Amino acid sequence: MHSTRNSRIEKAERGLSLLKQAIIELLRASPGGLRNTDIAKDLNLESAHAGGHRNFLTYSVLGQLIEQGSVEERKDGNETLYTLRKGQGHPRSSPEPSPDKVDQTPAIILPDQDQWFRYWMPYHFKKLEVRGREHVYLPLNRNYKPLGKTSREHVNFEEFSAQAMVFQTDPHAFEHVWHLEGLYLYDDSARSWSDYFVRLGRLLSQRVQVLEMAEKYSSFGS
Prior knowledge:
By secondary structure, the chain is α+β, with helices and mostly antiparallel strands. The protein folds into 2 domains: 2-84, Winged helix-like DNA-binding domain superfamily/Winged helix DNA-binding domain (Arc Repressor Mutant, subunit A), CATH 1.10.10.10; 106-216, no CATH class. It has 7 helices and 6 strands, in the order αααββαβββααβα. The strands form 2 sheets. Strands 3-4-5-6 form a 4-stranded antiparallel β-sheet. A two-stranded antiparallel ribbon has the order 1-2. A hairpin with an 8-residue loop joins strand 3 (124-127) and strand 4.
């Protein structure tokens, strides 16, 4: 029963990730901004429940994209328009690796269900609210759990804040680090895994410190 539930969660997470990517691609092509209803119509996701609560699927996903820092909203008269967050109009992935320099065969198995990579290597960085600090992000694994967590059980991210990273500047602006907007280091394609460690190295070359250490040496990031 537990493995069946894990399979359902995995499918839901993959579906959500693809939906986020689709919305980001649409907004990238529409720099003037789009309404939620425009997004739902373009993606053929128009919905309603009992004659009300229209297009809540895309509305909810937009809320998550806003929370993770990929999308922003603004008022235009009585309408709400959604745009990519400033500085995210273009992909943050690294330049196309030369085929003769990258062997993608080992990369294909990296995020498999039972591989350590899936649980121990950063997939996404989740923003945490920490008083007195602006750029605090918790690295999450492919299952959207703190690094090393293999359980599918719900976790309170705030309880893992000591593991969070404090960046001196906004990580959204880092060049040639992110594979997808919203601070994602890879997706389910072999290409994103093949240059993963190069981009991770670029990320770690930035001014960054573990929150627990930053609190000890309080001058950093404050």
